[in-house]
Amino acid sequence: MTARRVSRQQVRADDESTVSDIRIGTDGRVHVFGTSREILEALAAIGVRGDAVRLRLNGAVAMTGDDHSPSSAPATRTPDNQPS
Amino acid sequence: MSSVSTVARAAQAADHDRQCLLCEHRCGVNRSAGELGRCKAGTEARVFRHRVEHGEEPQLVPSHLFYLSGCDLRCAFCIAEEKAFDPRIGTLLDAPFLQQAIVWGRERGARNLQWVGGEPTIHIPAILRALSGCRDTPPIVWKSDFHATPEALELLRGVVDIHVADFKFGNDACAERIAGVPRYVEIVERNLFLARESADLIVRHLLLPGHFECCFLPVARWLAEYLPEIPFSIRDGYLPRWQARHHTDLAAPLPADIGPLARREAAMLGLNVVG
Q1: Distance of residue B236 Cα from the nearest chain A Cα, in angstroms
Q2: Span B54-87, pLDDT tens digits
Q3: What does the pLDDT look like over B208-237, one tens digit per residue?
Q4: Enclosing H/E stretch for A52
Q5: CATH of domain B6-274
């Protein structure tokens, strides 16, 4: 195939490492991209429905030993149409 | 844990900097000389985001994800949008950066290091170089579109502990139209068998609106026939992003009832549904 030359320009990305993207659909489903433990705990505290939050908080507890008390009821979706 | 010398693997991988055959586009370009193939990647990899995430499959979290810019596919619905496709975006990946980040992630409870994209496959030489300069690396998770060549997967043998394969499409027509990639199904299926030989494997499928019959069902039925024991992660959080608005079938969120329907179907097929 035809090769092209690399541009020396370096594009700097905004640092998104500390930002989570939360979108709430009109049907009440919550979509989270970039799910930190703190986001999970907040979702548990407001009582999201389904197992997604509880299962992942359990993983965090298994690693750190910290306790938590997630409750369960709007449904949450964890990050989905991720790249690759 | 990773069992081979990443130094040796990095040396082998350097061949692809001079004639890149990492993905099945097989461009063969000399990236060291500044030539660019379909993914437009040079010899450097860049991280546009890294953080400890809890939204992955439960058996992976907390997972320290490194998002690399650049990809060999062009999925119209990619949530990372231009960051996934422009390999010039982000912080240079090198050993000092990675070592510091690994310490940061471990302090936050990460149980593994996960390479995601864009697509990490196109950056295997740079990733191995960076890893080879780090001490005490955590288990490696490789989240990929599985459009790699067998040569690329061989470079990962013994380095990667868990492959997470994104099996996006159940037929070549949808893959060609939405992601611009030919021969998709045969390539992914071949790579699933190869990856399973060398590491743990999780297969992930994002449910796309209007693609239950043409994509989900063929993927699920193939897995049921050939890899029924493999953890199968059904993702139902699709939102229209990037170029999805240009595709009438992809322009709306996934209907709420499709996720439960897919999980029931997968369970009836005997699949090991996780996540």
Answers
A1: 7
A2: 999 999 999 999 999 999 999 998 887 777 889 9
A3: 999 999 999 999 999 999 999 999 999 998
A4: helix A52-64
A5: 3.20.20.70
| CA closest to B115 among chain A residues | A84
Average pLDDT over residues A52-77: 60
Cα separation, A31 vs A22, in Å, equals 6
pLDDT tens string B175-208: 999 999 999 999 999 999 999 999 999 999 999 9
- What residue segments make up the domains of chain B, in order of their start? 6-274
- Which residues in chain A are contacts of B46 at CB distance < 8 A? 13
ipTM, two decimals, is: 0.76
- CA count, 13 A, side-chain hemisphere, A9: 5
Per CB-CB distance under 8 Å, the chain A contacts of B88 are: 7, 9-11
Say what the pLDDT of residue A56 is: 83
Q: Which residues of A touch B (CB under 8 A)?
A: 1, 3-7, 9-13, 15-18, 23, 25, 27, 29, 31-37, 39-40, 55-60, 63-64, 75, 77-84
